[in-house]
Amino acid sequence: MGFFITFEGVEGCGKTTQLRLLKERLESCGEKVIATREPGGCPIADQMRAILLDAKNSAITPLAELLLYAAARAQHVNEVIVPALQRGETVLCDRFTDATVAYQGHGRGLDLTVIGELNRLATGALAPSLTVLIDCPVEIGLSRALARIEATSGAREERFELESVRFHERVREGYLALAAAFPERFVIVDGSGDVPRTEKLVTQALSTRIDALKRGGSPASQAGS
Ligand SMILES: Nc1ncnc2c1ncn2[C@@H]1O[C@H](COP(=O)(O)OP(=O)(O)O)[C@@H](O)[C@H]1O
Ligand SMILES: [Mg+2]
């Protein structure tokens, strides 16, 4: 089984940027790497992504939203993540189960036990080998994310960027609580600096952890989420 590394954090913290940089770095070392994202990551789940992130769908109920995330994840894990891990490839995923705990649980207030059950069901209990939590104040992340939306004018993936600052603060606190609960799986990286600084912190944190994982021989596991 290959390594399964997820990137988490509030909007605009730098997940997509850092995931891309890590992919390049690992590939330059000769590793076979797949970069994917949630919600989505394959054509069927991408159709669910379009529903989930479209600002026009603000009337979606919290439960319908949660179930759509689970449905998209079930498809993505089965069609993309597990086959790649079985081929021995490294999988980098932009958001995963922790995002559902942080956004739908801590952000929206849905029952954390139900979310945990749905996550287990959708993933077949597959947990990341490592989760990089890029942490930064929500105002910094949101201002980057909104600048990106304006630059790409008319982006439709903006439903979460439009939530209140308080919502995003609950999400951030939720992520920090997860990292505290699963210290062996999480690394927290400060994302408030510029891109090269964050990249350096990600590289430092991961090189220590990946070496430890390789020594311990426990890549993507079936537990610990
Ligand atoms: N450390 C950083 N400092 C300033 N701007 C950044 C930083 N990291 C990313 N950005 C920019 O901010 C925007 C959001 O970054 P992105 O990586 O897409 O965040 P996320 O995927 O976490 O929402 C992008 O336009 C990106 O180029
Ligand atoms: Mg992103």
In words, what does this structure look like?
By secondary structure, the chain is α/β, with parallel strands linked by helices. It has a single domain, classed as 3-Layer(aba) Sandwich (Rossmann fold), CATH 3.40.50. It has a five-stranded parallel sheet with strand order 2-3-1-4-5, with helices on both faces. α4 packs across α7. The longest helix has 25 residues. The structure holds adenosine-5'-diphosphate (ADP) and magnesium ion (MG). Magnesium ion binds next to α1. Magnesium ion (MG) binds next to α1.
In total, how many domains does the architecture comprise?
1
Number of contiguous helices: 8
**What would CATH call the homologous superfamily?**
P-loop containing nucleotide triphosphate hydrolases
Average pLDDT for all residues = 92
Please give a handful of descriptors for the protein shown:
225 residues, alpha/beta, Rossmann fold, five-stranded parallel sheet, 5 strands, 56% helix, 12% strand, binds adenosine-5'-diphosphate, binds magnesium ion
In short:
This protein has 225 residues and is of the alpha/beta class.
Fold blueprint:
Blueprint: E1 4-8, H1 15-28, E2 33-37, H2 43-53, H3 62-86, E3 90-94, H4 97-107, H5 112-123, E4 130-135, H6 138-151, H7 165-181, E5 186-190, H8 195-216
Parallel strand pairs: 1-3, 1-4, 2-3, 4-5
Helix pairs in contact: 1-8, 2-3, 3-5, 4-5, 4-7
The structure holds adenosine-5'-diphosphate and magnesium ion.
Residues 9, 11-17, 144-145, 148, 194-195, 198 line the site of adenosine-5'-diphosphate.
